[in-house]
Request: fold
Amino acid sequence: MIFARISLYYHIIPALRTPDWTPAVTALFSIFKRFALPALATLVLTGWLGPAVAAGDEPAGSAWQQTEQSAVRLIAATETTGNAETLTLGLHFKLKPGWKIYWRSPGDAGFPPEPDWMGSQNLKSAVMHWPAPERFSVLGLETLGYKKEVVFPLTVTRTDTAKPLRIAGTIRYLTCDDICIPYDADVALTIPHGPDGAPIKPSQFAHLISRYQSSVPGDGNRHGLDIEAAETWGDGKNVFLRVRATATLPFQAPDLFPEGPSELTFSKPSVRLGPDRRSAVLEAKVFGSKYLKGPDKSLAGKTLTLTLVDGKRSAEKRLGVVVTTAKTPITNQAGSGAPGDTLTPIALILAFALLGGLILNLMPCVLPVLSIKLLGVVGHGGGERRLVRLSFLASAAGIVFAFLGLAAALIALKTAGMTIGWGIQFQQPWFLIAMTLLVTAFACNLWGFFEVRLPMWVADLGEHSSHAHGLGGHSLQGAFATLLATPCSAPFLGTAVGFALARGAFEIAAVFTALGLGLALPYLAIAAFPGLATRLPKPGPWMITMKRILGFALAATGVWLLSVLTASVGLKAAIGVGVLATAGGGLLYLGRLLPDGARRRAPLWMAAVALAAFMVPGWLGDAAGRVNVRDASAGDDVLSKLWTPFDETAIATLVAAGNTVFVDVTADWCITCQINKAFVLNRTDVLAALQGDKVVAMQADWTRPDPAISEFLARHQRYGIPFDAVYGPGAPGGIVLPELLRQDIVLDAIMQATRK
Reply:
């Protein structure tokens, strides 16, 4: 049975305890003005119409108990109990948009869900666990809880393992938006014993419960977090709490939720991050200390439960509070708790982005456009300084605008709640087809298959630098270089991109602009000193041979793109696209030989070829025929035989059993990943380490979109690959390796993780 009672005081009474009553008065006025009548109507209708209609039972799940704002049910991780003494269940809430329920320590207002299991049978105990909460700041009040959906994992112990379990009771909870409504929900679930000797079968809810179990704060080892100390100073109305924490990966947006004597509440913390962002000091003001026992009214000697949350990482620890002599509060971040509010962190990230973009010029992903770069330089030998400066500025502008376009696309995807990351466009077949056709057009241009503007923007590429309209071609060259650079990662690049994609639109735009400027620095250098290009030998017949050779380099890039496409749409479809791209090149060549009238129809032929290429996956695509090019080409490669499929949930179990787990997140389109494999992971010493008796090598293939891999990367604050980490008894939280691997780094990490 569910019944509703309208509550207008859960946000008001706590605010009355503070000297400033403005939030309370504002909240009271807003609630009565906007929601008094709707709330009374809800009360009347609930009394007239009776309880909400509940959905039917599902295997391992109870019926939903529904209201206009929420729904709650019990779910189990297994369909039967078998002879297990301890079982895992979940209390599953779903909430309408805008509504929330509360954490075990709700903050300035509210109360958490309170289960009463008095109606249960064969139940010895039920322990409820609390996933890390969100912070909500409304009308000057700070509350902690959950929106949309949450599962509270339950560890249930049975009295008699030979009998089934029936868990039943009443859940008292409060759901709030602009008003608060308390509910009582009656839930019940019976889990049968099952046939004797039969294995316990996981239920359809096992993964859902496990996902929320992973967000329950632990000791922090799994996430590389450590809460080191809790300090206090002040008395009377000005009591402060200072907590020091460290992280193996840089902090992003840490928040602190202290719990202690019931008389106390805590403000949103101010945050100061260390220069490397691996240490943090969080300070919160303490309210209600005047109600504490003792003459000093301070936190000294009190034990607090401290929960530290940083994105999807969390840690929880009970610490005794000590008095500190350092009594200067953090004021430079004004309690925002968000990194990057001060100049130093964001300036450092932008410097990383600039340097990472510059290094990206040396990565193999950009080498296919070396032809355009080289021709752009040697083509200016003996030319005018003004035209050299303009053409290279146009190329730099194309690079920066392309990065801004990527930033805009990522912001839109993130706003829509979709997965974002560096290079993920290479997971999309249409992008790969477009790039294949574009690379083919560039190669044909270098081979001299077309000299006229066919189409206009292609013909201008690198061919007419002496004309003003050729600047558009140089801009497109820069954009092309940017698109081909995205499958690569470089030192400093991962840190900058990870910071940006974990933040908002401003940070994404700023970091991607810095990346674009870094990639464009060589162009800007020649624009600043055009004599570097004009002093080169004048173009001559030797350039024709050079262009043909570099055209074959671009053709090889097209073959590589087709190999990546094979993993997405299958071999037949990839071959079909390759045949059409080749046919397009042939049409361009024939267009050069045919009379002018037929030549003018060449754009229509090319448009038809492009349209057919985009339709090929629908005609010939075969999910069953998809090929992992990396595995298929591996043959008898020793390394390929070591890999086991990626399973994040198995890592903790393997480590607990004394194993060391090496995780490699890779993709067919990730050039840096292939370099790491060829020059580091395939080396004798590293192979010997990975073949150890207690070493498990896991490979996560991100060639195609995979939510499990995306979530794994996000939990490590990474949004691009390669990503490699080593877990073990000596490093249960994982040791994250740099983008570009070295043998000594990999071996040291495995050795460190193996040590207990």
About this structure: Confidence is low (pLDDT under 50) at residues 1-56, 331-344, 452-469, 629-636. Residues 345-624 form one domain. The first strand starts at residue 3 and ends at 4. The two ends are 53 Å apart (CA to CA).
